[in-house]
Amino acid sequence: MATVLSILFAGLGQLYNRRFLKGIVFIVVEAAFLITLANFVVNGVWGAITLGETPREDHSIILLIEGIIAFIVIGFALTAYIFNIIDARRNAKDLQLGKKIPTVRQQVIDAYNSSFPYMLITPGLIMLVFVVVLPLAFMLALAFADYSLYNAPPRKLLNWVGFENFTKLFTEDIWRESFVNVFSWTIIWTFVATTLQIALGLFLAILVNDKRIKFKRTIRTVLILPWAVPAFVTILIFAAMFNDTFGAINNDILSQFGVAIPWLTDATWTRVALILIQTWLGFPFLFALFTGVLQSIPSDMYEAADVDGGSRLQKFRFITFPHIMFATAPLLIMQYAQNFNNFNIIYLFNEGGPAVRGQNAGGSDILISWVYKQTFEYNQYSMAAAITIIMGLIVSIFAFFQFRRTAAYKEEGEM
Asked: Which residue ranges does the record assign to the ABC transmembrane type-1 domain (predicted)?
């Protein structure tokens, strides 16, 4: 009976169980929801489904956002409603077992003690939903609509087009060629640039950590200096240095050998320059990270290896490298994920250029810079959302499987 009453209206089951304070709270909450938000929820769901019916009067984007908010509100309401039913049923079972009904004062104390952590979490959770979940849901929705420069509200209404935007990426020539080139360069860029900066940081850390090296503090300070300079400043300086016409690299260095490289006008050389710059930007952090790990490795292990006749390569392979990977593998994976979406260096250096004939992406564009151009330069909002979904899936799948394989996420006894 308590379960049925709670289904009919929140709080009735609690009143039936003589939990009067809790029942009144549930009744007030549901009544307030029905009075204040019922109309908004109904209109929001209608707007999300139809995206409007009258051009210039209905704004599809506003209706879509209101619809997403309505579904979020429905989610919160259903959660509270289900909790109300479960609570009423649990209290009814306690009464059947002969448990004493607590007084109102005891109910307040019990509710405070049991719900205090949730009271602290709830504001942050609500903020997280509207700051993170709402934009993500909006982006997901746009990927299945036809929002573009030539079909923009309120002059026109949006329509749901299903997977048409994803199909364009693989069927239409300009989109297919652009996507294949950008995606392949993104993978190469992520792997080569990140691996080079990791290799350089590891090599320098091992070299400086050698007992025969003197002035270690000075050397470490100098090697970490590139990290102290803001990245965008360094990128802009390098962009000037690599300039084809007045750059110092062509005019002052390569000119001595009679060579002039088109760093900014040839896609291949632009990519080479970007990889070199990212290696310079990324190695100081990894150098500092590896240095800390190397200093934490017990010297007894190296002494034992010397007694056993181990070579430098063997000590690196069986002692140094496993310790470094155990401590830093998650951070190294994040380095790959960060470079996969490294918008700053791509856009600040050459704005993703140079232009490529027959494509709507530049020769050095990666997926994130291509999405930026589709959004703010070409106003292809739905296509940009579709590409973003693909990017998110790639990064999520890669990070998920790599994190699960790292020893840092396993028990030490399972290594």
From this structure: 183-402
Residue with tokens 């190296």: 302
Task: Choose which CATH entry (1.10.287.770, 2.120.10.30, 1.10.3720.10, 3.30.499.10) describes domain 165-414.
Answer: 1.10.3720.10
Q: Residue 70: is its pLDDT beyond 80? A: yes
Q: Which long-range contacts (CB under 8 A, 24 or more apart) does 246-249 make?
A: none
Q: Which two tokens stand for residue 203?
A: 């090599």
387-397 pLDDT, tens digit each: 999 998 988 88
Could you read off the pLDDT of 75-99 as tens digits, one per residue? 999 998 998 999 889 888 888 888 7
Q: What is the pLDDT of residue 409?
A: 54
C-alpha–C-alpha distance, residues 402 and 151, integer Å:
41
Mean pLDDT, all residues of the chain: 90
pLDDT computed for residue 203 by the predictor: 95
Query: Structure pTM?
Result: 0.83
Please give the Cα distance from 233 to 238 (Å, whole number).
Answer: 9
| Range of lowest pLDDT (58-62, 103-107, 129-133, 377-381) | 103-107
Q: How many residues does the chain have?
A: 415
| Cα distance between residue 193 and residue 340, in whole Å | 10
- CA 38/CA 26 separation, integer angstroms: 16
